[in-house]
TrEMBL record:
GO terms for biological process: establishment of competence for transformation. Keywords: Cell membrane, Membrane, Transmembrane, Transmembrane helix. It is a multi-pass membrane protein. This is DNA internalization-related competence protein ComEC/Rec2. NCBIfam families: ComEC_N-term, ComEC_Rec2. The keyword Cytoplasm does not apply. Pfam families: Competence, DUF4131, Lactamase_B. SUPFAM superfamilies: Metallo-hydrolase/oxidoreductase. It is found in: Cell membrane. It comes from the Bacteria. GO terms for cellular component: plasma membrane. Residues 576-767 form the Metallo-beta-lactamase domain. The chain crosses the membrane at residues 21-38, 44-62, 83-105, 292-314, 326-341, 371-388, 394-411, 418-441, 453-476, 522-541, 546-562.
Length: 832
């Protein structure tokens, strides 16, 4: 009997290990889906499901089988079982991703609802405003904030949906204020969820997919209509009233306390966000697992203190049993309340779920290691929150937990003095999180280590105190006015302390190069992470070689530019706007800077700087702004600031070592002018000398040629300027043409097309733009001429490579960088 019991015990332990391996393989395969170019087809999914079952069954049989050895004495059956469970888990993970991926992609907005006025019936689930504070810091032309919200729609016009779907909308009227949980009826214009596709920078498409948002658009209903026609049914919750109470305290740093205590970041200004980015403290002011951990730790300390007090007062007369379980129950309840009042954002819900799972394993008395616990938490996270692994917060959260467990295993931190452990842990976290931060945001803070060493311990101390004082001040105003008064005094003291803390952060932010923009390929960042991990492992044979091997891709990436014998034109996906870069070797030129949307110029602020850093084109020699329209010149200020702060430029040969040269229709862009740059001839063909107008028809018309191939960039000229160019015989032929005026019907005349004779035509335009660029007639003209045509809305960023062998066109959405969630959607009006 004893031997049989031992057998069953060992069998259970082996199966527990196999389940851990299965879950780990499941998660690893699911996470790699962020790099998949496509989802497996339905027949392949069926085969994957069958194979997963077969491998799991085989692994189970090998686990129960008596141990067998191969000729070298290795445990053959155990290895087979381990490999079988790993394969089964990986296949199951693949099947899971394919299932949720197809489920998301299968929902289609009816054709007759796209870009038409429709009535949406739904409930606000995120965004909106809290206590009259508008959301998301988006500015309209007059400087007012525009509310941005996520609406869970149940009906579109008379069409009742089988299941509610999420749509992200912004209001045209800045005065329209709704709150989370409000039920609304709005008139809106919507289109399928779609985003720009560039090789670097924020991926709107990936973000929308991770949030299960199927459509975007804008709300046409204004505040007056919403009030007079009863289009909003308010359902104010506890969070709303707490926000009002916090605002009533009249704190100087109310916006920051709203973010820390209630997860309401909507009142933070652009300057506040810049401060957070430059000091690397975004995780501190965005409620996440760290904050739940602080609350959990505070509750455990309080219950421990209470227990010791009871024991001291009553001695052995009271016996408290199962105090651990009771403590964990209080932790779960406290963190649940905090998660609720913080808005139940995805990182918070995910962290709370992981906490509950960990507590459940403790309650069940399951013996497990920290690494196995991490695997199980990760598994439940992947299953409970499908597609969340496409969002940066997933990797920041999981990465931080993994690093903490790894460092504790390596250095036994919890056996060291607490102050030493905190310093080592914070420094190591700051260093190890750099590759993840660079991978997702293309930016890292050099002052982040110092900022976090000071900020994290202080916030860990002040947050529980602030929450306790705020609860007393908000809830005891009537019952215990004296206690509420003392609590308000305490909040004001914390406010003064926080002002000093912000002054310290601003001091760090003002340091030269406190933050830097750079971007690398995912495989380079993964190699850098492995190098850091290998470096702190216990010494083993071949460790230095392993570190050098992992560092090689990183060293190669930061030191090697594109082939200097070739030249490249990079057409960025700027939505309804134009932004183009010309590079050869380490040097670059920029033609147009992209649009500005509500005070932000994402292409000029992040995409262009990050991409030029990624390809080591570190010197920008010239910038051409074709004309003053905001879809071409919107990023001028942002680009100028970046160049003045972070670039060391050598000048053009004609400029005798001066700064970056700027050209516009009013400055240097004159018909007949040209200069040589890196063996290429940059020529200006329009406007004529003496021009004093900066408009569409006086756009800079630029051509770039190496003597064999030429690309023509005509800005937004229309038929009048096209005819004038033809008449002055200044219009050259070109192999590649950036379509004039985004392909509008007032441009690209037949005479212009014949004169240029392009082989490739690229339209810089936005998805489902309201002008329906490119015009179908224009598209048909180029098609009849035999030119290959590309729209940036369908193909995303397009790289043109010019060499002696020809022209290579590589679009993002159909090239090696294609991802399954970046679906190509050609303009509908061209398909009719």
């Amino acid at each position: 009997m004893a031997s049989l019991a031992m057998y069953h015990y060992c069998l259970r332990r082996l199966m527990a290990n196999r389940i851990t391996i299965w879950c780990g393989s499941f998660c690893a395969c699911a996470i790699t889906s962020v790099l998949w170019p496509a989802l497996p087809s339905y027949p392949i999914q069926f085969g994957i499901g069958i194979a997963a079952i077969i491998f799991a069954a085989f692994g189970y049989v090998m686990t129960r089988k008596a141990p067998t050895f191969n000729v070298r004495g290795h445990l053959y059956s155990e290895h087979c079982a381990t490999l079988s469970f790993a394969m089964s888990g990986a296949l199951a993970g693949t099947l899971w991703v394919a299932s949720v991926g197809y489920s998301y992609l299968s929902w289609q907005l009816p054709e007759d609802k796209i870009q038409q006025d429709v009535t949406l019936f739904g409930q606000v689930v995120a965004g909106g405003c809290l206590n009259s504070v508008k959301s998301d810091e988006e500015l309209s032309g007059d400087g007012q904030k525009k509310p941005v919200l996520t609406l869970r729609v149940s009906r579109i016009d008379s069409l009742k949906l089988n299941a509610s779907v999420d749509m992200r909308l912004y209001a045209l009227d800045p005065q329209l204020c709704v709150h989370t949980n409000d039920k609304v009826t709005f008139t809106a214009r919507i289109k399928p969820a779609y985003g720009n596709a560039n090789p670097v920078g924020f991926s709107q498409q990936r973000y929308l997919t991770s949030q299960h948002i199927v459509a975007t658009g804008y709300i046409k209903t204004n505040a007056k209509q919403a009030f007079t026609e009863n289009r909003i049914s308010h359902h104010h919750g506890l969070r709303f009233y707490l926000s009002e109470s916090l605002s009533d305290l009249a704190l100087v740093n109310n916006a920051w306390f709203q973010a820390l205590l209630l997860g309401n970041k909507q009142a933070l200004s652009n300057e506040d966000w810049m401060l957070i980015q430059r000091t690397g403290t975004a995780h501190v002011f965005s409620i996440s697992g760290m904050h739940l951990g602080i609350i959990a730790g505070a509750v455990l300390l309080m219950t421990r203190a209470l227990f010791l007090l009871v024991v001291r007062l009553f001695g052995q007369r009271i016996v408290l049993s199962n105090t651990r379980d009771a403590n964990l129950c209080l932790v779960v309840l406290a963190t649940l309340l905090y998660a609720y009042v913080s808005g139940l954002s995805l990182p918070v819900v995910r962290a709370f779920s992981m906490l509950v799972i960990g507590c459940a394993m403790v309650w069940s008395r399951l013996a497990t290691t920290p690494s196995a616990l991490l695997v199980f938490m990760l598994f439940f996270c992947v299953v409970l929150f499908p597609l969340s692994w496409l969002h940066a917060s997933f990797y920041l959260s999981i990465g931080a937990v993994f690093i903490i467990i790894f460092l504790n295993w390596r250095f036994q931190l919890f056996q060291l003095p607490w102050y030493y452990s905190i310093i080592v842990l914070q420094v190591a976290l700051s260093i190890f999180m750099v590759p993840i931060t660079l991978l997702w945001f293309g930016q890292a803070s050099l002052t982040g280590i110092v900022a976090n060493l000071v900020l994290v311990p202080l916030i860990s101390l002040l947050l529980p105190i602030a929450i306790a004082l705020f609860i007393i001040a908000a809830c005891c105003d009537t019952l215990l006015p004296s206690a509420a008064g003392w609590a308000m005094q305490g909040m004001w003291l914390l406010d003064d302390a926080f002002s000093q803390l912000l002054r310290f952060l601003r001091f760090l932010s003002d340091w030269p190069h406190s933050a830097f923009l750079v971007s690398f390929e995912p495989q380079v960042m993964m190699a850098l992470c492995f190098a850091l991990i290998i470096a702190i492992l216990p010494t083993f044979y071949g460790q230095k070689r392993g570190i050098l091997l992992c560092l090689f891709p990183f060293i190669f990436a930061i030191s090697t530019p594109y082939n200097p014998t070739r030249w490249y034109v990079h057409v960025f996906d700027a939505g309804q706007g134009t932004a183009i870069a010309l590079t050869r070797g380490h040097r670059a030129g920029i033609i147009d800077t992209g649009p500005v949307y509500q005070g932000k110029a994402p292409i000029a602020e992040s995409v262009i700087p990050q991409y030029l850093a990624q390809i080591n084109a570190n010197d920008v020699d010239f910038v051409v702004v074709s004309h003053s329209d905001t879809d071409h010149a919107g990023g001028v200020d942002a680009l100028s600031t970046w160049l003045s702060q972070t670039m060391t430029n050598k000048a053009l040969p004609r400029a005798q070592s001066g700064p970056t040269q700027w050209f516009s229709p009013l400055n240097g862009c004159t018909q007949g002018e040209a200069f040589e740059w890196q063996g290429l001839i940059v020529s200006f063909h329009w406007p004529q000398a003496g021009n004093h107008v900066n408009s569409n028809n006086t756009s800079c018309v630029v051509s770039i040629s190496d003597g064999h191939y030429r690309i023509l960039l005509p800005g937004d000229i229309e038929r009048e300027a096209e005819y004038a160019l033809i008449k002055t015989t200044q219009l050259p032929s070109a192999n590649v043409l950036i379509a004039p005026h985004h392909g509008s019907k007032t441009s690209s005349t037949q005479a212009f097309i014949t004169s240029v004779s392009p082989q490739y035509v690229i339209y810089t335009q936005g998805y489902e733009n309201r002008w329906q660029f490119p015009s179908k007639k224009v598209y048909q003209r180029y098609e009849a001429f035999g030119a290959r045509q590309f729209t940036t809305s369908e193909f995303g960023y397009i790289r043109l490579e010019f060499s002696s062998k020809g022209i290579i066109v590589e679009p993002t959405r159909s090239g090696s960088t294609k991802r399954w969630f970046m679906v190509n959607k050609p303009p509908r009006y061209l398909q009719d």
